[in-house]
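Internal QA ticket QA-208
Title: Verify multi-chain structure generation after dependency bump
Assignee: T.L.

Test input:
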Amino acid sequence: MLELVIVSTLNGVLFGMLLFLLASGLTLIFSMMGVLNFAHASFYMLGAFFGYQVSQWTGFWPALVIAPVLVGGIGALVERYGLRNVHRHGHVPELLFTFGLAYVIEEVVQMIWGKLPVNFAVPRSLDFSAFTIFSTNYPAYKMFMLAVAILIFAALVAVLTRTRVGLIIQAALTHPDMVAALGHNVPRVFMLVFGVGTALAAIAGVIAGPALVTQANMAGLLGPILFVVVVVGGLGSLAGAFVASLLIGLVQTFAVAINASLADLFRPFGIAVGPGGFLGDIWNVSVAQIAPILPYVLLVLILILRPTGLLGTRET
Amino acid sequence: MTDAVKPAVAAAPESGFGSLRALTPWVAAAAVFLVLPYAFTSGAALTMLSLMGIMIVFTLSYNMLLGQTGMLSFGHAVYYGLGAFFTVHVMNFVIRNGLPVPVPVIPIVGGLFGLVFGILFGWVSTKRGGTAFAMISLGLAELVASSANILRGFFGGEEGITTNRTKLLGVFGYNFGPQIQVYFLIAAWCVLCMILMYAITRTPLGRMCNAVRENAERAQFVGYDPRMVRFLAFCLASFFAGVAGSLAAINFEIVNATYVGVGQSGVVLLAAYVGGIGFFFGPIIGAVIVTYLQVMLSDVTEIWQLYFGLMFIVIVMFAPNGVAGLIMMHRPLWRAGVVGRVVPAYLVALGPALLFTAAAILLIEMIHHAAAKVGEGPKMTFLRVPLDLSSPVSWLGAVGLLAVGFILSRLVWPMIARAWGDAMGTARERGFVA
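Actual output:
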């Protein structure tokens, strides 16, 4: 039991930090431009596939830098020549533009790398077990992922609070019009934030690629959960995104590890509920099986009970 | 005083005409539905026409949300799919118990179950409009889609649930076995739903929906609760989505988890937007285009969904009012009788536009062939032209064609703008432009 708790906590924090790498970019983009970027998880996927492709040529370590730079460049171009043009039509077309973009990126990835998972392997220098808890060998690569995520988190906090650019970004989060009035080139800041946000997503993609499955559906799997994170945390709140990332990460990993069902809950009381009736499955579904829907339950509950999210100040 | 009364009096006989004239489009639509299966007699065409009928109902119901009330939903397929699933279960129940229920009334069942879930989910999701509504709709869609994989008893798992429409009671000797009979059933329901949904836009509720779309706060000042308006619109949209799902269930006789999936919700959003959400007939055009492309493109190329997505992005970027918007742009020109002046410019621009599109498609197909079909070697054909991908000539040629198409398109653009400005100027002089 203790083993399960420790390992699940580690995995949960890891997954949560990975989510935060994505959620931080998404939150910054949303706060500045008011547009929820549907394609954000697609840039994460592009990062994983670019990382795979570049690592075929140069090895893993250069790929860790090159792939995010490439994806960030693509992101900046998308902002400059796509989003900025759609902006004048209003918010709904902006949202739909990113929706269409997510669709196209998935198709392009499928077109080039196929539908099957690619063999994006853990680099040999990290392919050993870091330590052993009870009977579980914890892989060093996961510790590396955690380290990268924490490093970037620290760098992000430092840039946002200690540098001039960070101050302008922070100001633009809450008072974009005022920042523009003070003579800052807000469109260029937008382009920068969009590029950096997508690059962060790509870093998450490169480091997650070898640990998870690098496949054309990985954006579709993670994208909706990412929305849950930013909405639960509170749209526009970086601290909220951090808390919600860890929360969702832990909830998901713990739920997957619990193999009990409603029927098990009633059995000790002598109440036997078996399959039968129209919805008989409900009784025998284990917590592990409903793990995928837990984030959405959380999302719906949060939006009904506390529409600003955990730490947000704006109504969505 | 008399000035104010005069137009009203003058308008009265015209509105009498108008009510008669208001019927014309619906009679025309019914006539089109009647004639089509005799114009396109092949089995494939009949299947496609049936799909179009279903999609028209579904897309129009979606536009009650997005176009009429300004609610962006990412989960409209939930009501379509649940309507379809309950239809199949009810049909099987009717068959088992030998109840005297004829096939044509079955879509009401789907509609009612769509309505029930619309009331249930609508109550929680319509509290707020805007992004919050969009996010809740996405959350609910994921919730239902994931549940479909868990509750196998109801959703039938991967193979889905089947039924048999011919086991139900027939009407006038029709047992709805042949596709043509199902087509006419779908067509009848489609025309009925189109009329009903159009009628709803003309009611005070329909007008309040538009008001909430434009400015929810002002609608509140007039004394209407925007939440209530959104809720009612949501329930009605869910009802018609359920009808569409029911028609699909009758048509295919099988329902599976993809019916409630986010993919299906995406397709209806795409169809409505491509057609044009600002006009009642826009989603009808969109449904026809999207169904046609879904069926035809998937025969022509493996990567049809990519073209689908690209088309959507192009529409969002350059024609945010959709195909219907492009058509309606020309209305003042048509009424001023100067539409002929822009036609030559359009015809001239057609060449470069086609060249550019063809070159882009060629390049995409070449990349696809080079990346995904390594096993087939470097030889491919495009529009019957054999190409060798191993030689740089093919690639340079494709890129060159694309560049030429782009430059020519840019060159003819000022000509279109001039023709357009000229025609609009005349239309304005004649008083047809506000």
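Spot checks passed. The radius of gyration of chain A is 21 Å.
Status: verified.
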